[in-house]
Amino acid sequence: MDHHRQAQASRGLQWFGKTDRGRVRPNNEDAFLGLQFDPREVHHLGAAGEGRTGNLDFAFAVSDGMGGALAGEHASRIAVQKITTLLPRCYLQSAAGLEVGFPDVLQELFGEVHLELARLGRSYEECAGMEATLTLCWFTPWRMYFGHIGDSRIYYLPASAGTIRQLTHDDTHVGWLLRNGKINERQARSHPRRNVLQKALGGGNQFVDPQVGAVAYQTGDIFLLCTDGLVEGLYDTHLVELLRSPEASQLETNLAEKLVEESLARNGRDNITALVVRVV
Fold it and tell me: In this predicted model, what pLDDT tens digit does every residue of 36-47 receive, in sequence order?
């Protein structure tokens, strides 16, 4: 695998992460994470930075926790932190040919996070009913693999196109209605059941069936991971405008901060988290 990785041209990644409690909620139940890792070591990344793929992989994740008292805060933090121990182990499987086995690897990872949240929910009164969404991007030198459950999102804005694509499916009935053309984006945003999840990690959910996928990426591509609070106030067209603005093209511009500030100005009823990864 080492020779195979060295044969791959390493890619530059630039990332920005930002989370905000919002204008209404008393606490922040969102969490995000950035990691650089191989089988031997894991480095936690700061909220903003740059790095290169090659002999090290990168992972970025967002999670939105749910539950009484502080259970939601605990749930999202546990969900992202569990990745820290699970992904380096999975890296060895990627060495054996991730292209074939990545769905199994991500299925196992999501399953273990689910079991941990469910165990804590049963064991501690203050954690009863804790649940979390989890949305994960794993960057190898040649592909971005993703896993997802819940209604947080991954958006993909290719360098060669002006349109943005939502890679993940919202695990809600309203999300299904939108995907199948039964309602439009505006109707989905005002639907009274838009936040009712059909799938999440932990809680009383018995089975974990994450959505998994892969994207081959190139220089200039942008990936956005976000919780549902960000898009409460921003339509897809707003996301493209902000990510493609002249200011955004400057490498030092904190894209996540810009998105969160704009969402706060337009809505802000929920916690808001954005994690932007740009291929440079």
Answer: 988 788 999 999
